[in-house]
Amino acid sequence: MTPLKVVPRLLRVASVLLAYRLDELVDATHLYRPLKLLRPLLARPRANVAQLSRGERLRLALTELGPIFVKAGQVLSTRRDLVPADIADELSLLQDRVTPFPGAEARAIVEQQLNASTDQLYAHFDETPLASASIAQVHAATLRDGREVVVKVLRPGIDAQIARDVKLLRSLGELAQRWHPNADKIRPLDVVAEVEKMLENELDLQREGASASLLKRNFASGVDLYVPSVHWELTAARVLTLERVSGVSSDDIAAIDAAGIDRKALAAKGVRVFYEQVFRDNFFHADAHPGNIWVDTARTGEPRFIALDFGIMGSLPEADQYWLAQNFIALFERDYARIAQLHVAAGWMPATLRLDELEAAVRTVCEPYFTRPLSQISLAELVVKLFQTARRFELTLQPQLILLQKTLLNIEGVGRMLDPEIDIWAVAHPVLKRILRERYSPLRTLRDVRKRLPEWLHHAPEFPELVRDALRQAGSGEQRVVSDPLALALLHDNARRQHKLLACGLLGGALLIGSALLWTLAPQHGVWPPLGTGAAGLLAFAIGWPRSR
To answer: Which of 165, 287, 309, 320 is catalytic?
Structure first.
């Protein structure tokens, strides 16, 4: 989209912002400053918004601008490390609800995607939608065998609309990146990229079905969390058929109390389920607001949650998952020095950083919280403030960690609605320690070694050639002159890994050969010496084998 094509739509955005008295957002953008002369010709400020807060005015403006801007606002509401708390709180209230499209069109899309008439696919298909959002809407249906389901259908023409609106958002982001005085802190292009990725994932309903299927497998017992089943024979890229479930929203306290459910037990279970998703399964629901997390009112003795809407799911690289878990443990135990060390060891902060300064900054943030009763400490709020503080030390925050931060805020919000006195720390700490104990136990390590053993044996014949090449390069002095600091750092890192691979490969090979010799030439010593030597050799290979990045 060329700048000339963008300008009329940008002017409409500016006009809506001015109508909601968001003058400071307009004045902060260089392109909009000439509009001061044209304000009498643009939208006049609404008389009924003068008494509203800036967060409320921004929320109403984004709602008027349309669904894609609502999505952008929802993403911004998760960036509490960048957005003021009052604005983030208001943006979190944005509702993605729009006028439904005709049920006949939904029926046609289902038939086109599944290559059959709805009369053949379902015993009944209700053209009146149960819910309608900017990306898709949901219809009730009944299968031929009498089971009730819901059918999620993408809006017709949504791909082109999203592509057009994302281009506009990107243009706005580029303008803000260039002219906004706090662009380095807000990072508007990163926010636009998050919106774009979120929308891309939500446009593939088969992907959403796969996410639901994996989450259901992770909680197969259904005791703590129930996930509706996917009907794959009635699912395609633009149609998703799920088992229909019943329950109440997790913020409907009156209905939960009326069902006789123990809210304290339910709140504690919600915290446990969150930590199991993140640290046990490494796959978590990243849009866990009350509308997507229901409570099963039919189960009063053993309360459980019901998960809905799997368009936004999160996972972490294994290394980040480990470092994050260790950071939580250190935070629970108030070990500020270890928090500082872990941030540097994880690569989230420069290795040249002074650890004592980072430790002092972490202590400054945390100590005021620990003067309160533990039941009054907001773990989510503390994590947000730690991220804000860490930015002063050049923190590199990955998108996955941002999703996790958002989910932590949602889960803690749900927990405190159910039980205002819940002690998040007391519930989370033992769960996390148990998960880490199981995840990094010797038995788990042996299972991982056995799983990777065929791969190591497959590559074992390559080790002599790698050793020969490394020795030849070292002996001939082959090297390149590189002046770029980044390239030098990469070369240094590669060299370090090659040295580690060479040393561990030589050691592992020697130990395996020694194991074979002990087994064949000294059977009188029993099986344990060769087995121990062989295990040590495999461990050396495991330590030296390069990890994917």
So the answer is: 287
- Per the CB < 8 A criterion, the answer to whether 339 and 357 are in contact is no
Q: In the predicted model, is pLDDT for residue 491 greater than 70? A: no
Q: How many residues does the chain have?
A: 549
313, β-bridge pairs: 285
Q: Average pLDDT, stretch 36-58?
A: 70
Tokens of residue 133, six digits: 């959002």
Tokens of 470: 């490394």
| Predicted structure pTM score | 0.73
Pairing of strands 136-142, 225-226: unpaired
CA–CA gap between residue 390 and residue 407 (Å, rounded): 20
Number of H helices, E strands in the chain: 23, 10
Note every long-range contact of 469-474, with CB atoms under 8 Å and residues 24 or more positions apart, other chains counting. 470/498, 470/502
Q: Is 9 exposed, middle or buried (0-12, 13-18, 19+ CB in 10 A)?
A: middle
User: Is 96 assigned a catalytic role?
Assistant: no
Q: Which is nearest to 269 in space by CA: 223, 331, 321, 217?
A: 223
The C-alpha atoms of residue 112 and residue 156 are separated, in whole angstroms, by 12
283 near 215, Cβ under 8 Å? yes
Q: Residue 141's beta-bridge partner residues?
A: 125, 149
Lowest average pLDDT, out of 171-175, 294-298, 413-417, 545-549, goes to: 545-549
Measured distance CA(399)–CA(383) in Å, rounded: 15
* Coil vs helix vs strand at 305: strand
CA 366/CA 115 separation, integer angstroms: 58
Per-residue pLDDT tens for 155-206? 998 888 888 878 887 887 787 777 666 666 566 777 777 778 878 888 899 9
Mean pLDDT of 85-101: 78
Q: What is the pLDDT of residue 217?
A: 96
For the chain, the first-to-last Cα distance in angstroms comes to 35
User: Measured between alpha carbons, how far is 169 from 524 in angstroms, rounded to an integer?
Assistant: 75
